[in-house]
UniProtKB/TrEMBL annotation:
PROSITE patterns: RIESKE (PS51296)
Keyword Iron-sulfur: yes
Matches recorded under Pfam families: Rieske, Ring_hydroxyl_A
PANTHER family assigned: 3-PHENYLPROPIONATE_CINNAMIC ACID DIOXYGENASE SUBUNIT ALPHA, CHOLINE MONOOXYGENASE, CHLOROPLASTIC
Protein name: Aromatic ring-hydroxylating dioxygenase subunit alpha
UniProt xrefs under SUPFAM superfamilies: Bet v1-like (SSF55961), ISP domain (SSF50022)
Enzyme Commission designation: 1.14.13.-
Ranges of residues in domain Rieske: 46-142
UniProt GO molecular function: dioxygenase activity
Keyword Ubl conjugation: no
Enzyme class name: oxidoreductase
Family note: Belongs to the bacterial ring-hydroxylating dioxygenase alpha subunit family.
């Protein structure tokens, strides 16, 4: 029997600190905490796997990961998308090693067992001679993950059979996804493969950086100010709202000092604006018209950013989804999808893709800036002296009356709890509190077979 939980005294200490807006620094990279996160955070929550436009035809497949669980996403013979464990049922080797492709059957490289698109074991090399007539192939098909659901083309998986539905899990975030993913007839499409690379970072820091921290923009990305791309005003990424939602999801709706964007509808072609207005509610269309950047996250490890890039006359917008796949307490594999409205002109899509590569792609300038700071966080947070040091998360007043100045804005039209600035700790704090709730849920001794 192995006890795998935080002890009660430690939980109380963490809760007390969080109430004060403090995060003990050691929790970021602690190896035991990481082991618990795999089971209690990533084993219980919905994780993004891909977009339906990546699987266009019967037999199309992509291979993905949910932390260390290998996933084979396939469009089956009935054109349904299935998520199998990408592991042969014979001796367990990884079945499909390609990133993507199209097949009628998947044949294991080890002893040659083969499976059809519906996951059935259909071929065993020298089957009758090796296993006899009584071998029941039906019992040895591919194993599906417990849950697979789709919202507006976004495919999510969950390893907990008892989890709430994806729609319930997303909750208020659906309203914001509808605005980004549902503004155009035909929705969004993924262009190219998701790019991926490994970064020295902890997943909590990367998720927080994207979902909850526009405050870093004016310093970390200072070079954009010096190049004249961003304004001198240090508050420039703080104008707008930060919205905190159920399950610690959140979004920053960044506008500008005037509350307007530098370009209506994020620089999308004017010919598309009536379509956006037709597909959205008045409130959604108003926000989309005024926003400069949407940046946010679905807890635990999906982040997204929808920015404006380019110079006057050549502005473009796209949607970047990214998954922070933990590879350890101090390492993430970044998976980065470029998405754009199917209905956009082809030339516009190509321009936007070039803009993405130069900014948030693996070699993009903004990406390099962030990667450097994430590495420095893990570099120092495991140090001996950090066991009793805390980090500051307390500029939000509804968590601790009178502690600071940022208060809820009840006039914001979208769902969730909105604050009238994105330089705000509300969402970060919610993410940390939720993290602790998950780590301590059903906190009882668990039995594990050895
Ligand atoms: S491990 Fe796949 S056929 Fe043996
Ligand atoms: Fe950044």
């Amino acid at each position: 029997m192995i006890k795998r939980e935080l002890d009660e005294k430690l939980i109380q200490q963490l809760k007390d600190k969080m109430l004060e807006g403090l995060l003990p620094q050691w929790v970021i990279t602690d190896p035991d905490i990481y082991e618990l996160e795999k089971e209690k955070v990533f084993g219980k929550t919905w994780q993004f796997l891909g977009h339906e436009t990546e699987l266009k035809e019967t037999g199309s497949y992509v291979t993905r990961w949910m932390v260390n669980d290998p996933i084979l996403l396939v469009k089956d013979s009935k054109k349904q998308i299935k998520a199998y464990l990408n592991s042969c049922t014979h001796r367990g080797t990884q079945l499909c090693t390609a990133d993507r492709g199209k097949k009628k059957t998947f044949t294991c490289p080890y002893h040659g067992w083969s499976y059809n698109l519906d996951g059935k074991l259909v071929g065993i090399v020298a089957g009758n001679k090796v296993y006899g007539e009584e071998m029941c192939k039906d019992e040895w098909g591919l194993r599906e993950i417990p849950r697979l659901e789709n919202y507006r083309g976004m495919i999510f998986g969950c390893l907990d059979p008892h989890a709430e539905t994806l729609e319930d899990y997303l909750g208020e975030m659906k309203w914001y996804f509808d605005m980004m993913l549902g503004r155009s007839d035909g929705g969004m499409e993924v262009i190219g493969l998701p790019q991926r690379w490994v970064a020295k970072a902890n997943w909590k820091s990367t998720a927080e950086n994207f979902a909850a921290d526009p405050y870093h923009v004016q310093t970390t990305h200072r070079s954009t100010v010096e190049m004249g791309i961003s304004p001198e005003d240090p508050l420039y990424a703080g104008y707008g709202h930060q919205v905190v939602m159920k399950n610690a999801h959140g979004i920053n709706v960044i506008t500008s000092k005037t509350g307007r964007s530098r370009s209506e509808f994020q620089g999308m072609p004017q010919s598309m604006w009536p379509m956006f207005q037709r597909n959205l509610t008045l409130e959604q269309a108003d926000i989309l018209e005024r926003v400069t950047v949407f940046v946010g996250g679905v807890y635990p490890n999906l982040s997204f950013v929808s920015p404006i890039h380019g110079t006057e006359g050549h502005l473009h917008n796209y949607l970047n989804f990214r998954v922070w796949r933990p590879l350890g307490p101090d390492k993430v594999e970044v998976w980065c999808w470029f998405m754009i409205d199917k209905a956009a002109p082809e030339e516009y899509k190509a321009d936007a893709y070039r803009g993405y590569l130069g900014s948030f792609g693996p070699t993009g300038t903004l990406e390099q800036d962030d990667t450097e700071t994430w590495a420095r966080i893990v570099e120092v947070s495991g140090a001996s002296m950090m066991r009793d040091k805390e980090l500051n998360y307390n500029n939000v007043s509804n968590y601790l009356m009178g502690f600071s100045h940022v208060k809820q804005d009840e006039t914001f039209p979208g769902p969730g709890v909105a604050y009238p600035t994105t330089y705000c700790d509300a969402l970060s704090r919610r993410m940390h509190e939720h993290w602790l709730d998950l780590l301590t849920a059903n906190n009882s001794v668990k039995e594990e077979s050895k």
